[in-house]
Amino acid sequence: MAPTGRAALLAALGSLPVGIWDPGWTGILAVNAPLAVACACDFALAAPVRKLGLTRSGDTSVRLGATADVTLTITNASRRPLRARIRDAWPPSSWAPGTETAASRHRLTIPAGERRRVTTRLNPTRRGDRRADRVTVRSYGPLGLFTRQGTHQVPWTVRVLPPFTSRKHLPAKLARLRELDGRTSVLTRGEGTEFDSLRAYVPGDDTRSIDWRATARQSEVAVRTWRPERDRHILLVLDTGRTSAGRVGDAPRLDASMDAALLLAALASRAGDRVDLLAYDRRVRALVQGRAAGDVLPSLVGAMATLEPELIETDARGLTATALRTAPRRSLIVLLTTLDAAPVEEGLLPVLSRLTQRHTVLLASVADPHIAAMSRARGDVDAVYEAASAAQAQTERDRTAEQLRRHGVTVVDATPEDVAPALADAYLALKSAGRL
């Protein structure tokens, strides 16, 4: 069979036997005079790489699980057309496994004095900042025998934000909030409620809500309706210590805690409450304070994007002291931390009274769904042992939760899928009971 393409050209020039040439190499193993001349001409006609102008544009942020498009504009300022292959390098976590090659490599031709755009589509697999590395350009001559290659640094950063998957629960929680907020008046009494209106007594109403003065002025018994107070202060405290690094499902506990915090923040800001965020292990990792209602959620999402679990033990005394400085007045402090016995009993319980004597404390913990699955296992000896181990672990968590409740702490312990709506329900229950 007669040689074709580049191999045929080499054979015509009297070069090495066809098949010794490897087109992936940028050099030649052995040449004769005609081939040397051809390669020199090809090299001379290849557009220079260093004179290219490269700029970026496109997305600067994306939610985890979505895609971001970053456009690279290449300007060929030389007098020769550019025939090139381009690799736009980003960190490996910028794509799903196995998709980097197709997404980051481009082939294009740019006439002299013109520009072209190529788009790199990112599909990040982790939160945080993804920074562009280098752009490698391989410029080919018209014969494809020789190439020029160079790199350009074209900075760009895409911030990968938390996905906020619990957003789907927000409409239902807002409907419940509207009931508590007086749009549908309800009878509740407590230290954190405001008078809303009067209405006629119906059997089953709390007798403590009867307004005797209003009753004396009319022919029927009148009762007061109450609505939860607005402008309460809520401090979300994310524990970023080693226990937050434990994986539940496909993600660290910290990610599920952040998702629950975002749902609560969205709900509380709609209720007219002020929401702040503190992320802490042995020092402050993030602090968001004093944001207006419309800016709370974007500020929290931006602050959480770069948070990572730290493989160190959380300093409970430091966390408590920082929380008290951040919330000097009576507030709802929401601790998103662990229910493991050792960190709670040795770290949190000795200093918990400093929080509970001034604030209402709500603790939310992410439970491992694998424990529940193990507890249901039966069928063989190994399965029974797993079930017994899971039951022991759950009993220990329940005992720790009961210790916290005896100190006046409201405890939420739920799996990653359920912790966000459970935390929102606990907040609404506290609001309904007038405990905020």
From TrEMBL:
<dbReference type="InterPro" id="IPR002881">
    <property type="entry name" value="DUF58"/>
</dbReference>
<protein>
    <submittedName>
        <fullName>DUF58 domain-containing protein</fullName>
    </submittedName>
</protein>
<dbReference type="Pfam" id="PF01882">
    <property type="entry name" value="DUF58"/>
</dbReference>
<feature type="domain" description="DUF58">
    <location>
        <begin position="198"/>
        <end position="381"/>
    </location>
</feature>
